[in-house]
């Protein structure tokens, strides 16, 4: 996977990861992938809702210890 | 998104305490991040949230939900202690400490996110008149309006909240 940008949101809590991913989208091209790393457990549900609302797809998601990793593709 | 029309969130911020400043600011900034539009109507004590030199505090009185000062000892601060001078500052300091530890954005940062994202920050004209607040005392970018302004916006809202 070709990741255009990595966002480190570890240690940040609601709503910052959502605000950060939104900001990260600006300046990217359609199809670009952003990797978001978060430790906020709430981000799992929040990212799903954000993706549904904004239409930017989460193409892959995994957990590495306490870190949740999302790969978001700009629509 | 299945529908074309941008979703709209209309929020009333009525209280001027630090704890109650968070929900409207968090929800409005998140609405923008989720491709919605949002406005906050700051009325009565809520006006304090958008003052240039706002120093929001946490009231220690009549708040049984306040976490214990010492987490290991499950004893809250009795109301009788809460009336003592300095207790408001102490409760505020404690709350700021918890928020920082948890990694929560400050209200300043949230206000910045709201402003940058284009949240309409509407100060209540009537409250300003009643409390003697001048436009210069409010943050730049704040607009001034009344009940009609808010209701006009809220009429087309998908979500309306009051805090």
Notes on the structure:
The complex is a heterodimer of chains A (75) and B (163). Chain A has 75 residues and is α+β, with helices and mostly antiparallel strands. Chain A has one domain: TusA-like domain (Translation Initiation Factor IF3). Helices cover 29% and strands 37% of the residues of chain A. Chain A has a four-stranded mixed sheet, covered by helices on one side. In chain A, strand 1, helix 1 and strand 2 (33-38) form a beta-alpha-beta unit. The two termini of chain A are 16 Å apart. Chain B has one domain (8-162): Hypothetical Protein Ychn, Chain: A, CATH 3.40.1260.10. In chain B, helix 1 links the parallel strand 1 and strand 2. Chain B has helices at residues 18-33, 79-82, 87-102, 107-117, 125-131, 147-154; strands at residues 8-13, 37-42, 120-124, 143-145, 159-162. Chain B has 163 residues and is of the alpha/beta class. Chain B contains six helices and five strands; from the N terminus they run βαβαααβαβαβ. The two termini of chain B are 28 Å apart. Chain A binds chain B through residues 11-16, 18-19, 21-23, 40, 49-50, 53-55, and chain B through 1, 7, 26, 29-30, 32-36, 102-105, 113.
